[in-house]
Design a protein that fits this description.
With 133 residues, the chain is α+β, with helices and mostly antiparallel strands. The chain is built from 4 helices and 7 strands. The strands form 2 sheets. It has a 4-stranded antiparallel sheet with strand order 1-2-4-3, with helices on one face. Bound molecules: zinc ion. The site of zinc ion has 8 residues, from loops.
Length: 133
């Protein structure tokens, strides 16, 4: 067992009751309904990258030039999009808004201060201003 795995295990123990214990970029489960795209596991995807569904949604709709609506666990996008494109955007989101730019750990949080957004790393203490969506 390597160090990362041990850390994940420790995290799991603490957060055993939360829907997604360990950090993970899940692949979206998507299908098309007419001209729309439905992501059935959207809430879980957001939970596992430790961000609010609203924030992730805002990023995705902008990047994918689509409008979107959260319904229960699902996200409904107004355009026909491939799961591959959506997964790529989620990775981009994680790199920009979740992973620490310095130590690359996902133990970070977003804070808003005086109208600016900051990504703060709980692992190494790095704090960087990030672009608002
Ligand atoms: Zn860090």
């Amino acid at each position: 067992m390597n160090y990362e795995t041990l850390l994940d295990k420790a995290y799991e123990n603490v957060k055993a009751t939360v829907e997604c214990g360990r950090f993970e970029i899940l692949k979206v489960k998507g299908h098309h309904e007419g001209t729309r795209t439905v992501i059935s596991n959207f809430m879980q995807v957001a939970m596992c990258v430790r961000r609010t569904p609203e924030h992730l949604l805002k990023f995705l709709t902008k990047e994918l030039a689509s409008s979107g609506e959260i319904k229960g666990e699902r996200l409904i996008l107004s355009r026909r999009l491939s799961s591959k494109d959506i997964n790529e955007k989620i990775e981009k989101y994680v790199n920009r808004f979740v992973l620490c730019p310095k130590c690359k750990k996902p133990d970070t949080e977003l804070n808003e201060e005086k109208g600016k957004m900051f990504l703060r790393c709980l692992a190494c203490g790095e704090k960087q201003e990030i672009q608002k969506i």
